Amino acid sequence: MTESTLEWQVSSLALQLLSERAQKVIRHWVSSGPFRDVTGAPGLLYLAGDGEKSFVSLAVEAGCRACTTSVLEEMTHMGMVEQDSAARVLLRRAAYAPAAPSAGSVVGREQLGEAS
Q1: Is residue 104 domain-resident?
Q2: What pLDDT is stored for residue 11 in this prediction?
Q3: 10 in a domain, yes or no?
Q4: Percent of the chain clearing pLDDT 90 (strictly above)
Q5: Number of structural domains, the chain?
Q6: Cα–Cα distances in Å, from 34 out to 15, 49, 51?
Q7: Which H or E run includes 68?
Q8: Three-class DSSP labels, 30-82
Q9: Separation of alpha carbons 10 and 61, rounded Å
Q10: Which of 1, 6, 44, 77 pairs with 108 at a CA distance of 20 to 30 A?
């Protein structure tokens, strides 16, 4: 199964290392359509900008209007995000994991990442 069919959640590592507000930002990043890429994974975001796909707009939507800079610094310091020279922010894979399947769903071995 492809990444587009997976749902994501905050990883256990991020839950241990990050503040509640940083966790909320990641939770919104992995679950909100505008902040996901075409495969359904968390998208690469510009730091700021007029468009809806920026880290600043993500943090504001996640309820972190006044703490955008401190959350970004925390996430960078803990290795959960990377910034590139074009002022884009990437959520590193250590920050999120596939969500546990819901009780009513049927999950195949390939969806769980296991070989047949």
Answers
A1: no
A2: 98
A3: yes
A4: 72
A5: 1
A6: 23, 14, 10
A7: helix 68-77
A8: HHCHHHECCCCCECCEECCCCCCCEHHHHHHHCCCCCCHHHHHHHHHHCCCEE
A9: 17
A10: 44
Distance, in Å, from the CA atom of 41 to the CA atom of 51, rounded to the nearest integer, reads 19
Q: Specify the higher pLDDT residue, 94 or 52.
A: 94
CB 83 within 8 A of CB 46: no
What letter does residue 42 receive in the DSSP assignment?
A: B
Check whether 94 has a pLDDT greater than 90. yes
**pTM of the prediction?**
0.81
Does a structural domain hold residue 67? Answer: yes
Angle between the 68-77 and 20-31 helix axes, to the nearest 10 degrees?
Answer: 90
Condensed to tens digits (0 to 9), the pLDDT of residues 56-66 reads 999 999 999 88
The set of residues, in sequence order, having a beta carbon less than 8 Å from that of 1 and lying 6+ positions away, is 108, 110, 111
Query: For 2-38, how does the pLDDT look when each residue is reduced to its tens digit (9 = 90+)?
Result: 444 689 999 999 999 999 999 999 999 999 999 999 9
Q: Is residue 78 part of a domain?
A: yes
